[in-house]
Amino acid sequence: SSDVCSSDLTAVINNDQGARAQRLFAAVVLAALDDAIADDKKYGNGEEQIARWARSRDGREVLMCAGIDPSERCINGMMDFVKKGIRTSVALSREESERQAAA
Q1: How far is CA 97 from CA 5, 32, 45, 86, 93, in A?
Q2: In sequence order, what are the residues at sequence separation of 6 or more whose Cβ sits closer than 8 angstroms to the Cβ of residue 60?
Q3: What is the pLDDT of residue 78?
Q4: Residue 1: its pLDDT value, please?
Q5: Taking Cα atoms as reference points, which of 29, 34, 31, 89 lies closest to residue 64?
Q6: What is the pLDDT along the chain (103 residues), one digit of tens a residue?
Q7: 59, 53 in Cβ contact below 8 A?
Q8: At what angle do helices 2-43 and 57-65 cross, to 10 degrees?
Q9: Cα separation of 33 and 88, whole Å?
Q10: CB atoms within 10 A of CB 41
Q11: Is the separation of the CB atoms in 54 and 44 below 8 Å?
């Protein structure tokens, strides 16, 4: 019985570590979006910057580690997000406010 319990505990720990790693990579994606928004406001090239990053080997790897499919549809969505120019922290807090208001 202790073997079953320890294997269950190991699975929980590994799952938790995986979830933390995924959140860390998601934070990198949010930072890349914010950087592209800043570039867009300053130089007008944020959409191209985020698309170039997302199509790069490193960008694709980070997106996949964040649990995001690095498809062209995803890249177009990221470009649209950058075009709107709303920083990720603002967008996320608005979404949470709307979710709480609906509940």
Answers
A1: 40, 24, 30, 15, 6
A2: 54, 70
A3: 97
A4: 46
A5: 29
A6: 445 566 676 777 778 888 999 999 999 999 999 999 999 999 999 999 999 999 999 999 999 999 999 999 999 999 999 999 999 999 888 888 888 899 8
A7: yes
A8: 130
A9: 7
A10: 11
A11: no
Count of CA atoms in the C-beta half-sphere (13 A) of 23: 6
Which residue type occupies 89? S
Distance, CA of 54 to CA of 57 (rounded, Å): 8
Residue 20 has a CB neighbour count (10 Å cut-off) of 10
Per-residue tokens: 12:
């929980």
**Residues 79, 47 contacting (CB under 8 angstroms):** yes
Taking the CB of residue 31, how many other CB atoms lie within 10 A of it?
12
Question: What's the distance, CA 71 to chain centroid?
Answer: 14
Single-letter amino acid, residue 44: G
